[in-house]
Amino acid sequence: MGNVYLTIVLAPLIGAIVAGLFGSKIGRRGAHSITISGVAISASLSLWVLSRFIWHEQPVFNDAIYTWMVSDGIRFEIGFLVDKLTVLMMATVSFVSLMVHVYTIGYMADDEHNWPHGALTGKNSYQRFFSYISLFTFSMLMLVMSNNFMQLFFGWEAVGLVSYLLIGFWSTRESAIFANMKAFLVNRVGDFGFILGIAAIGMYFNSMNYAEIFAQASALANTQVAILGGVSLMTLICILLFIGAMGKSAQVPLHVWLPDSMEGPTPISALIHAATMVTAGVFMVARMSPLYELSETALSFVLIIGATTAFFMGLIGLVQNDIKRVVAYSTLSQLGYMVTALGASAYAAGIFHLMTHAFFKALLFLAAGSVIIALHHKQDISQMGGLRKYMPITWLTALFGSLALIGFPGFSGFFSKDAIIEAVGASQIFGSSYASILLTIGVFITALYSFRMYFLVFHGKERMDEHTKHHLHETPWVVTLPLVFLAIPSIFIGWYAIEPMLVNDWFTSGNWMPIVVSHEHDTLHHLREHWHGQADFIQHGVTALPFFLAMSGLGLAAIIWWGVFAWNPRVDEKLQILGDPITKMLQDKYGFDDFNQRIFAGGSRDLGRTLWVTGDQNVIDGAIVNGSARRVAQMAQWTRHLQTGYLYHYAVAMIVGLVGLLTLFVSF
Amino acid sequence: MNDFPLLTLIIWLPILGGIVVLASGDKSPNISKWIALSFALLTFLVSLGLWVGFDSSTAQMQFVERSTWIPTFNVEYYLGVDGISMPLIVLTTFITIFVIVAGWEVIVYKPTQYMAAFLIMNGIMVGVFSALDAILFYVFWEAMLIPMFIIIGIWGGPNRVYATIKFFLYTFFGSVFMLIALIYMYFQSDSFSILDFHSLQLSMTAQVLIFIAFLLAFAVKVPMFPVHTWLPDAHVEAPTGGSVILAAIMLKIGGYGFLRFSMPITPDASASLAWLIIALSLIAIVYIGFVALVQQDMKKLIAYSSIAHMGFVTLGFFIVFNITQNPVLSSGSIMGIEGGMVQMISHGFISGALFLCVGVLYDRVHSREIADYGGVINTMPWFGAFMVFFAMANAGLPGTSGFVGEFMVILATFRADFWWALIAATTLILAAAFTLWMVKRVIFGEVKSEKIAVLKDLNPRETFNLSVLALVVLALGIWPAPLVNVMHETVANLVTQTSICKLPADEIDHCVLMQPKPIAATLHN
What we know:
Chain A is mostly helical. Chain A has 28 helices and four strands.
């Protein structure tokens, strides 16, 4: 199977290299053909491997491809670990990526308009874009298929690099190149923790290999590290690694880069900043469940951060008017749900939500992109409305996506979100009641902002200008087909996957358990024990609080932004004025951006300037280096007076010296 | 093969080449340039013989040549390489090629002398890395200053006189003390062989004084905080080629000196003063990181970035003492030194390439000010791609060689002390910040001015330079094993040496270093 896995990884890489280096030679057609073929190979092989794992008891693969380096007894390798968790990620990543690749043909078709006249960067931008998204697919696959920490970090940073390149894709826009640098730097803050976590693992486990590390984990469970007065080793490792996850999966306070990343073209918002890359942190924590299970402190930390993100970021979604930013805040909030699930040790539920979210959020982003194309790159939802008539496929798929997002019974999001809320409710660790409350109210918020956007975009009066309205029509098939293909799993995948993934121990059975949950943290046991099929689960769901909250959110959204909005289009504005201090706080995004900009960015520059001017220029160069040069010069100036060149001066000096010496000899 | 004087050839071939080029004069500069390039290429090819013939299963000196030079003082012409010096020699001969190519059309004033200076420089630097006799080493060490002095002084920028004097005095100041230390050790051992110095027993006082003398010499070269201020000035004034050699090779000589002299000769003093070097290294990483952030001049920025990166080198070397003295740890010290070595080699490629990139811009716009640029990628997409690549390598992105050394040093430092590792790891943020902010302002954005609007993308010569370097940076990042493997035995041997107490019998009670711990067996593929 090694060759199959290698093919899955390398096919997109080859596509990326060819499209990237020879883009001008092979043209647009060549570039999208080769990259799409590459990703299609990955996707179909991944789905095939997935089917082998489901129906044919495919054995776990854990082997090195090559030895990167050996130093000091630690073997650093590039290798794959393919188990049920990996294969699920592979299938999700490559499938969504394939859809996005196809979609991109339509979205980037007239990209030359996005570049200033004469810019050479705009010449092959289409090909370059395909190259980047294929490169991303390669990196992401390397990340999820890794069998060791070093390669995980490789993939981790590589997806960060591609994300950097893609957020700043339109490199002449100041906002884009600010956003991509911000994204990279904020992620680096996370990686700073991540690499220390890896170093801790290297020190105590003397290995980078997952399997070897997991095997030793329980033996080291009670090890203490002598820093800050003694910390449990597992807590230290898990929190350090999680700081990395906070960067990549945009958790408070390292979430600030994700909304800005919307400066990138929409296909990558769907692929990278919703479906795959941002879920890498969630995947990583699930992968490391054997370690996280050994530290309740770390789990509580994860839980609290996740719940905070889920709730407070969702709130910001209510005041956004940019269609992509609404979806972006929704993504932050949903990532929070996944992370909270991890904190509650419901790793399987977190991964389950990751998967359903990948489909419906990619769908929502692509639908948003479809709207953006139709409106000639206008993104303000207050200038939309009534698009239902013009874009039936986009409308219907977006509706399905929204229903999945709010967890409407039967849709995929319903199963995954209910499972998370139930698991967090069952959790006993510190912070679980806080998390439980926030997640439950969060359901209401989710429904409210999702359907605010939905109604403002697809229903009500058509508020766009006449010129735009005149040109409105459904987007071409390369755009709508991926929408349909993503809508199908958004509706059904929950129904089919919940039983194997959460009930039948798909992840936690067999010789090799991708996810390990200790008995006392098993928050999914209630779900498992009271399982009577999906229909019964839905029946239960519709009598529970989250359902009522979701429905009231939807209902309230319908009343305000559909009903009231019809005769008073300024209701949105008025509501925002009504809740002024809160609106203000939400619009300022709780002040994170200002704070970072002033304290971290500004502070660093001031500090750098101070160190440079006082340290280097004034003290070292001024006082010491040039200062000693000046001393030497002064000394020379002074001693110069001794050499006057007058014979009588020397004669006097000699006589004085002679007398002096004689006196000396005589007296001693 | 063993009797063939390969090292002599690698030292004197380029020097001979330099003389030939000088003799050919400026009448037909094209022929002279081709002669220079041929000698540079030939030297590189010959130096590959070192790599091919190198036996990485031993820590012994290889390709040894030994004959008397000044019998009265027992001075010898004594050459040889091990796993530490060999990669540095190959790096030297390799980088020289790019320097010659980079100066091809750009240097119009006395081009042959320019090329000759670099060829001679090449030979001298190889001499520094391969000399096993202290006086021979010292001669090469000081001789190195002369071509560099000339290169900056003649082909440098407007403020070149200040920069050259500062450069010369700074480095000369340090090396005088080293000479005293070398002579002192000659009187102790009656030999100038560096390997004989390694087996000297020296009292603590002597060790500390020798250590400080070496420190003054090497710290200036590296350069370490606070004796680093000559570097930004020298870089800014130096022509592109000078900057490349300065950053890629000359700084490495300081690091090499620590490994060849300070650590094995004065292990006890090194162990007790390791805290000082570690502190200075960490200051270099953080302090210089912040200073680099606010630089207005691209060359200064890269120069400061070099200082920060070299901080990783010295950090990786000197944490060894903490690790070997910690009874709980069985390994980690080798990784620190190997990490430092990889960092040196990798920095050679990356900083060299970055200075070439700045050179590409400078040749067109005649400015190094960041503020004069903006949106370069719009007119120079290929150049922009290279610049972003090398910037990412400079920020230590995995998959590039810049990651390997940093990763190893952070991993090793964590074993020594959590807080040191924490401070060192800030480079992940700082290096990314100062490099990418520069890239943002120079490469991305809208076309800033008319000058930028008319820029022409890379010519074949520049493309050659940058793509070869990019391939090497990438190759080392994807598969560093070949580089690391040649060092294993030498580094393991060095670690053993640094863990043995070398104090004389009457001071044995003061030994901080214990009897050598068994070094964990190094694994080979």
